[in-house]
Structure formats: structure tokens, C-alpha cells
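sry for the spam today, last one i promise. C-alpha cells for design, 343 residues
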């Protein structure tokens, strides 16, 4: 048993996974009377449980072997599986760096996992001095690092992230949901160096497929095997696999849209900065801006009453709104409404 296996919950290690009809016979042609499907209709067959066509294309785009790729029903399924594979409920712990993406904490609560927190420092980066001593805790199984981080928008310092991975015997999960909007390199390049590293990305942001619910996990073959054993057999529908395959046919369009969003984010930041009640627009490596304003609740309500919906994050980061970059005309409408506000 290697070190990663030892981190896995004993019941998961011993799990005999469900063997579905498509696991037992993988041929494409024949008279299929093995899965109790209806013989009628265009969507009568169960989806490919291993999403082989989609994973193969993702593999060539990302430069990561198929064996190192898992697809979940959104990153949210990947997050939940991390807890279910590694954290024994009522016993184990996770470390989070708030303010950060809320699902890490919700999933911890669902899986009865205690949450340790080290707040990000004043530059919204990992506070290593406070983090490193916590990593020796033998009940600490997971550390979630969100980079670029939601809601602050910035990437974590890569040397600090690597120090955490190296100092921690448990599993470090790096959530790169917004990495397509950043110029920093991806930690997918490092999964072959560290057995205890999981990198998450998603089709929900730059790929523009939030409705299709497809999240990606990149990790060692061993960790991916646990994900495949734990997931429900048909976790990604055929319709959603097809939507992702169709989207990946035109990579140029994805790149053009991503570049347009980045250019708009930069333009929007400049416009917001010149408003009298805006105190600070934080630097962003993502498709959104964290903006500190004088009266967040009032500005939020005023925008809502004009049908412009942003996220009020002032409970997590004092005085801050989180604003997603829209199209040029959506951003112009936002600025026009903000210019009318007189605090
Ligand atoms: C940091 C981060 N990770 C993951 C997700 C969710 O991704 P998915 O749509 O793939 O579940 C979000 C959604 O806002 C996010 O901000």
C-alpha cells in the first residue's frame, strides 16, 4: 500500500465498485439487451461511464494523459468526492483559506469534516507562517487552495502553494476554475511530481458551459482510480458530453471569447476606479472584479432595482462587491447605472 492509499478511508479502499453493463461490454455494435434500456428513441442508451471520447480530447488539449483525468458533474462533484474518498466523517479535518469559494465549507459540513481556517493575508495570499505548523496534524486530510481565488480574484503565490504541497502529507487540492483568465502556469504541469496533488478545472467559466455541469480533476493515476470507483456510474449525461465535445471543436472561438473577457475586465476596472464611491478595485486574474465601495449594501440594492445583479460579498470581505465581467454592452449598462448613484 503506497502513501496515497493510506490516506484513503478504509471503507473506500475496500470498496467493490458497481459494475454497470457498459463496464462489462464496451463494443459499439450489436443488439444491446444488457442494460434494461428501452429499444426506442435517440437518448435511450446510457452514457459512456468513462467519457472516453471527451477525456481523450481534453487530454490532447491539456497535455495530460487520459489516465490522469477524471470528469465530475461540475467541480462541485469533484469537491464532494475529495471529502468522501479521504475524510472519515466525525474524525478528519480540512484546511481552508478564507475568504474563498463557499462549497469547500458546505461540502465539509455535509461530510461531517471539521474545518480549520487560516485567513488569507492582507494581499489575499497564503499566510505560510500560520499554515505550516497546522500541516503536521495527522487528522488533516485535505487542503483546498483556490487560485485564482473566488471572491478575491488573484492567484496565490506559486512558491507558497508548492511549499504547502511539499510540507503536507495529505492531499492538496488546487482549484483552478478561473485559470484560463490568468497568465500564470497551471499546476496540472506538476501532477507527475506530487502523488498528493489534485488540480481542478471546469467547463463552467471560460468554456462557457456552466449549464452542462462538467468539472475536471487532474491527479496521479492512483487518485483518479479512486474517483472512478466512487462516482455514480453515469455521472455525466450523454447530452452534456456531446455539448462539451461540440464546444471543443472550436478552440479558436473559446480563446477569442476569453481574450475579449480579459480586455473587458481591464476596461471595466478602469471605469470603476474613476467612480467617487469606489475605494479599491483589486487586481484580478479571473473573469470578475472585487470592488471595495463606500456603502456596499446600498449600491447593491440600487443596482438590483435597476435589474443589474452583482454579488454582495461585504459579509466576507468588508465593503466589497464581486462583479462578473459581462459583454461590452452589459458592462456599459452597469457603469451607466453606477454613475447615477449619489451617495
Ligand atoms: C472557485 C470555484 N470553483 C468551482 C466552482 C464551481 O464549478 P462547477 O460549475 O464546475 O461546479 C466555482 C463556481 O463559481 C468557483 O468559483
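last one done:
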Amino acid at each position: 500500500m503506497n502513501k496515497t492509499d493510506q490516506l484513503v478511508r478504509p471503507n473506500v479502499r475496500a470498496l467493490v465498485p458497481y459494475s454497470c453493463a457498459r463496464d462489462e461490454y464496451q463494443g459499439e455494435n450489436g443488439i444491446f439487451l444488457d442494460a434494461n434500456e428501452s429499444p426506442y428513441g435517440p437518448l435511450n442508451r446510457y452514457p459512456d461511464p468513462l467519457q472516453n471520447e471527451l477525456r481523450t480530447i481534453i487530454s490532447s488539449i491539456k497535455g495530460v494523459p487520459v489516465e490522469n483525468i477524471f470528469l465530475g458533474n461540475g467541480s462541485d462533484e469533484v469537491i464532494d468526492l475529495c471529502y468522501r474518498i479521504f475524510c472519515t466523517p466525525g474524525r478528519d479535518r480540512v484546511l481552508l483559506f478564507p475568504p474563498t469559494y463557499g462549497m469547500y465549507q458546505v461540502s465539509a459540513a455535509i461530510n461531517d469534516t471539521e474545518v480549520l481556517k487560516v485567513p488569507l493575508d492582507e494581499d489575499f495570499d497564503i499566510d505560510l507562517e500560520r499554515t505550516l505548523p497546522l500541516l503536521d496534524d495527522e487528522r488533516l486530510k485535505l487542503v483546498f487552495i483556490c487560485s485564482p481565488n473566488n471572491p478575491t480574484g488573484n492567484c496565490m503565490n506559486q512558491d507558497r502553494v508548492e511549499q504547502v504541497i511539499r510540507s503536507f502529507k495529505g492531499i492538496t487540492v488546487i482549484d483552478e476554475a478561473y485559470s484560463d483568465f490568468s497568465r500564470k502556469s497551471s499546476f496540472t504541469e506538476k501532477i507527475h511530481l506530487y502523488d498528493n496533488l489534485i488540480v481542478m478545472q471546469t467547463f463552467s467559466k471560460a468554456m462557457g458551459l456552466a449549464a452542462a455541469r462538467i468539472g475536471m480533476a487532474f491527479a496521479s493515476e492512483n487518485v483518479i482510480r479512486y474517483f472512478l470507483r466512487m462516482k455514480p456510474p453515469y455521472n455525466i449525461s450523454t447530452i452534456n458530453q456531446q455539448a462539451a465535445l461540440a464546444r471543443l471543436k472550436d478552440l479558436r472561438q473559446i480563446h477569442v471569447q476569453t481574450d475579449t473577457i480579459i480586455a473587458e475586465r481591464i476596461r471595466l476596472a478602469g471605469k470603476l476606479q474613476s467612480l467617487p464611491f469606489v475605494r479599491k478595485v483589486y487586481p484580478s486574474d479571473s473573469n470578475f472584479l472585487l470592488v471595495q465601495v463606500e456603502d456596499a449594501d446600498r449600491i447593491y440594492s440600487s443596482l438590483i432595482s435597476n435589474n443589474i445583479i452583482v454579488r454582495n460579498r461585504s459579509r466576507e470581505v468588508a465593503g466589497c462587491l464581486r462583479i462578473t465581467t459581462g459583454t461590452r454592452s452589459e458592462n456599459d449598462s452597469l457603469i451607466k447605472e453606477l454613475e447615477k448613484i449619489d451617495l
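The chain has two domains: 3-249, 252-340. ok im logging off now
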